[in-house]
Design brief:
With 84 residues, this protein is mainly beta. The chain contains no helices and 6 strands. The chain has strands spanning 18-20, 33-37, 41-47, 52-58, 61-70, 80-83. A 6-stranded antiparallel beta sheet has the order 1-6-2-5-3-4, with no helix packed on it. The radius of gyration is 13 Å and the shape is globular.
């Protein structure tokens, strides 16, 4: 087994894991993740680089980028899934 056997792939690789997201203003996701939104709405998150962004009226589907946190304040979308 090599050092990188358990390393998650990049954005150009298929997702290996997923978990439901409960938005929280203070707690990071267990892994930096791409997001899937199950309902249309706003999503407020902290990017991998530490920048807070709010995407307004985002449609159902994948959110471009990699996030470390999904904040409860400012997030109206539901059924969010973290994928990595």
């Amino acid at each position: 087994m090599t050092t990188f056997t358990k390393k998650a792939g990049g954005l150009d690789q298929p997702f290996q894991f997923g978990a439901p997201v409960v938005p929280n203003d203070d707690t990071d996701l267990p892994q930096y993740s791409t997001l899937y939104l199950g309902t249309e709405g706003d999503v407020c998150g902290i990017t991998m680089g530490g920048t807070e962004v709010t995407l307004r009226n985002h449609p159902v589907g994948y959110v471009l980028g990699v996030y470390r946190r999904v904040k409860a304040t400012g997030t109206t979308s539901e059924d969010i899934v973290a994928l990595w």
